[in-house]
Amino acid sequence: MKTKSAYWACQLIGWSGYVALGLVFATRAVGWRAPVVVGYILFGGYSIALTDLLRREIRRRQWLDAAPGRVLGRMALAVVAIGVVQTFLIYSVTLMLTGTLAQMGGASPLFSIWVSVTGADGAWVVFYVAATGPRRYREKEVRLQLAVREAELRALEAQLNPHFLFNSLNSIRALVVENPPLAQDMLTRLANILRYNLHRDPMHTIPLASELEAVTDYLALEGVRFEDRLRVEFAIDPAAAQVAVPPMLLQTLVENALKHGIARLPSGGEIVIRAALQSGAMLLEVENSGQIAASAPGATQVGLANTRERLRILYGDAARLDLANRAGDRVTATVRIPRPA
After folding, report:
1. pLDDT tens, residue by residue, 47-70
2. Cα 285 to Cα 58: distance, rounded to the nearest angstrom
3. 3-state SS, one letter per residue, for 269-337
4. Which has fewest Cβ within 10 Å: 81, 139, 193, 328?
5. Side-chain half-sphere of 224: how many Cα atoms within 13 Å?
6. Cα separation of 247 and 197, whole Å?
7. What is the structure's pLDDT at 128?
């Protein structure tokens, strides 16, 4: 409520000041005339309405979450468009109130009027972006926190639910007699997974290498259960392994590949994890045997919706996640993450 009141106060003060200044210059030129005063009052009213409409569109379409270049382009086009509308209304109102454009000097000042009002609109945009910056940052942090919490819940559900723990501990118990060294290794990996989920900071990005360590432990535990039905291959560029990624990003992709791909195939299959640098970005791929079911194309994307939202919050439209069928009965999840400048 306070934010809304402050916004309207700024709207009224800002445009009233602009109208008052314009009115002073106009009356010096043509004197105090009722049409001039009414015209400027109407100008203030529709300028407030037009800039408020712009604000609503900015918020509804989330323009300020886009890449800086797109933000600048969209704002510039919006300012130009509003300036054109205001100029048209100024001429229309003047003609309606006076029946002539003589007091404006005819049609010749059209460009200078457009430049003036467009400059005011540009100043409005700059002030709005600067004034709402801290609030947008707080909102982004809250959205990211909620998205991360949901991702954690999904990951914990897959990793630490009774079924996962039961399967892992049951497999380890069978190894205690048959292969004690391997049983010890599996216990260590299970402890690593627990430690990774409990002691990292979910609000910060982490190197891909850290995600790879956790995923390696997870796949090793699942490998004991699936035995030769699960085959895993890594193709990681060392430079890509140092790129920061959101926590649980790779984990979510691998769990999706295992649950909706390998586990459904009687003969099992292969998971291939690739990471490489390309054109100012890091490309991360998780490929698995299987196909996205044509009858239920959204079925394999439930666990990925949260990942897409987190990428959007962190990187705007500079990052993306695509899921597609590939030749040879393969499914590939591809994530593109921009590298820091």
Report:
1. 999 999 998 988 888 787 777 788
2. 33
3. EEEEEEEEEECCEEEEEEEEECCCCCCCCCHHHHHHHHHHHHHHHHHHHHCEEEEEEECCCEEEEEEEE
4. 328
5. 28
6. 9
7. 85
| Residue 183: partners with Cβ closer than 8 Å, 6 or more residues away | 172, 173, 175, 176
Q: What is the pLDDT of residue 26?
A: 78
Q: Tell me, yes or no, if the pTM score tops 0.85.
A: no
* Residue 37: partners with Cβ closer than 8 Å, 6 or more residues away: 23
Domain ranges of the chain: 2-141, 206-338
Cβ atoms of 310 and 248 closer than 8 Å: no
What are residue 333's DSSP bridge partners?
286, 323
For residue 45, give Cα distances in angstroms to 50, 68, 81, 288. 9, 31, 17, 59
* AA letter at 250: L
Question: How deeply is 286 buried, as exposed, middle or buried, from its count of CB atoms within 10 A (0-12, 13-18, 19+)?
Answer: buried
Cβ-proximal residues to 272 (8 Å cutoff; 6+ apart), any chain: 232, 233, 234, 235, 285, 286, 287, 288
| Type of residue at 179 | N
Report the candidate in 327, 157, 149, 119 with the shortest Cα–Cα distance to residue 259.
Answer: 157
Name, in order, each residue with C-beta under 8 angstroms of 169's C-beta and a sequence gap of 6 or more.
190
Domain 206-338 sits in CATH 3.30.565.10: yes
CB–CB of 285/334 below 8 Å? Answer: yes
Q: Measured between alpha carbons, how far is 271 from 254 in angstroms, rounded to an integer?
A: 8
Nearest to 204 by CA among 268, 248, 238, 156: 248
pLDDT tens for 2-51 read: 677 888 888 899 899 988 888 888 777 777 778 888 888 899 999 999 99
